[in-house]
UniProtKB/TrEMBL annotation:
Belongs to the NAD(P)H dehydrogenase (quinone) family. Keywords: Oxidoreductase. The keyword Zinc does not apply. It comes from Xenorhabdus lircayensis. PANTHER family: NAD P H OXIDOREDUCTASE-RELATED, NAD(P)H DEHYDROGENASE [QUINONE] 1 ISOFORM 1. This is NAD(P)H-dependent oxidoreductase. Pfam families: Flavodoxin_2. The keyword Transit peptide does not apply. InterPro entries: Flavodoxin_fold (IPR003680), Flavoprotein-like_sf (IPR029039), NAD(P)H_dehydrogenase_qn (IPR051545). Residues 1-181 form the Flavodoxin-like fold domain.
Length: 188
């Protein structure tokens, strides 16, 4: 099994960083292979703009996009790790998806057909939140309501299935012991 880890957090002291370290340990202990991209460390350009479209029209892909696409292509399982910001992804991850999951790579679409190209791959999405689970439930904001763009509208659309979402709630409000227990609960 080959995993690809897509990691989007700017702070090496964050809980997300600890999740990423735990996941790498789990993968190594299992004897699986993995590739890794840290979008902030790479300073990945998240803005889908004219150079991308011009390259696509020439039948080419820009080098940073090509590098990520090669990693996606080789992986059986994608692992996303990110904090929930405004009930979505950090912009750098949204932009990675915009640019890397391009027409012709992640799917093919013309006037008549839409064909997913990433079938056969699965995903796990690790997210952290500031909000407690019961507060979300009280406000009709259950996980499924804000994760569908990612699970169905993005990964599902390009054929990646199944996708498991692993949420960690109220991270800034819980104790170090609780955070440690959450990290230990992570299995790959
Ligand atoms: C710009 C920004 C937007 C945020 N939006 C949300 C949000 O919509 N829902 C939520 O529960 N927490 C939100 N938070 C809180 C973070 O999700 C939380 O602090 C983080 O997941 C904790 O993990 P970390 O220590 O690894 O950063 C937001 C934080 C920031 C900085």
């Amino acid at each position: 099994m080959k995993h690809m880890i897509i990691y989007a957090h700017p702070n090496p002291k964050s809980f997300n960083y600890a999740i990423k370290e735990r996941i790498i340990d789990e993968i190594v202990n299992k004897g699986d292979e993995y590739s890794f991209i840290s979008l902030y460390d790479e300073k990945f350009n998240p803005v889908l703009a004219s150079p991308d479209f011009e390259a696509l029209h020439r039948g080419e892909v820009l080098p940073d996009v090509a590098k990520s696409q090669a990693m996606v292509k080789e992986a059986d399982h994608l692992i996303f790790i990110y904090p929930i910001w405004w009930f979505g992804q950090p912009a750098i991850l949204k932009g990675w998806i915009d640019r890397v999951f391009s027409n012709g790579f992640a799917y093919y679409e013309d006037e008549k057909v839409f064909t997913p190209h990433l079938t056969g791959k699965s995903a796990t999405v690790f997210i952290t939140l500031g909000t407690a689970e019961q507060v979300l439930v009280q406000n009709d904001m259950e996980l499924d309501n804000f994760m569908r763009d990612m699970t169905l509208g993005t990964l599902g659309l390009v054929g990646i299935y199944p996708t498991k979402v692993v949420p960690f709630y109220a991270i800034p409000k819980i104790s170090d012991e609780e955070r440690k227990a959450l990290l230990e609960s992570i299995v790959i």
